Amino acid sequence: MLSQGQAEVEGTRRKGKHASSTENRRMVWESVVWPLILDLNKPYFSLKEYHAKRDRFCKDTGMRASKVAGGFVSLLIKGIIARNKNIYSIHYRLIPYLRKRAVLEYGQVIREVNTKR
């Protein structure tokens, strides 16, 4: 395995841990969680509903379920998704976007969730 410095010399730069986590969160939010929320038209979902959407995404893209799981857990840690037993819900500041059925990109999600009002 090459160190990052060696990888840069050879022209193939690898992402750091933080960049990979952000990329995984973005992918899971924009490709799995937000489309699921819009499909269900409610700000919460069950684990079974999430797994069905995740499995379809993995099958369509060839992405490993473990990579998607890491992004999902990261969304939980960031407070974008909250868990209550087997129900997962989005942050309350994101609900107006659901009502408008807006395309909600990850960057906007982070701004909404982290903004103090």
Describe this structure in words.
It contains 6 helices and 3 strands, in the order ααβααββαα. Strands 1-3-2 form a 3-stranded antiparallel beta sheet. The chain starts with a helix and ends with a helix. Helix 2 (17-40) crosses helix 3 (47-61) and helix 2 (17-40) packs across helix 4. With 117 residues, the chain is mainly α.
Helical content band: 55-70%
Strand line-up of the largest beta sheet? 1-3-2
Residue share in β-strands: 5-15%
| Rounded Rg | 16 Å
Average pLDDT taken over every residue:
88
For this structure, the quaternary state is single chain
Largest sheet: 3 strands, antiparallel
How many angstroms does the end-to-end distance come to?
46 Å
Query: Segments where pLDDT lies below 50 for 5+ residues?
Result: 1-9
Number of helices: 6
Structure keywords:
117 residues, mainly alpha, three-stranded antiparallel beta sheet, 9% strand
Outline:
The protein has 117 residues and is mainly α. It has helices spanning 4-9, 17-40, 47-61, 65-78, 95-100, 106-114; strands at 44-46, 81-84, 87-90. It has 6 helices and 3 strands, in the order H-H-E-H-H-E-E-H-H.
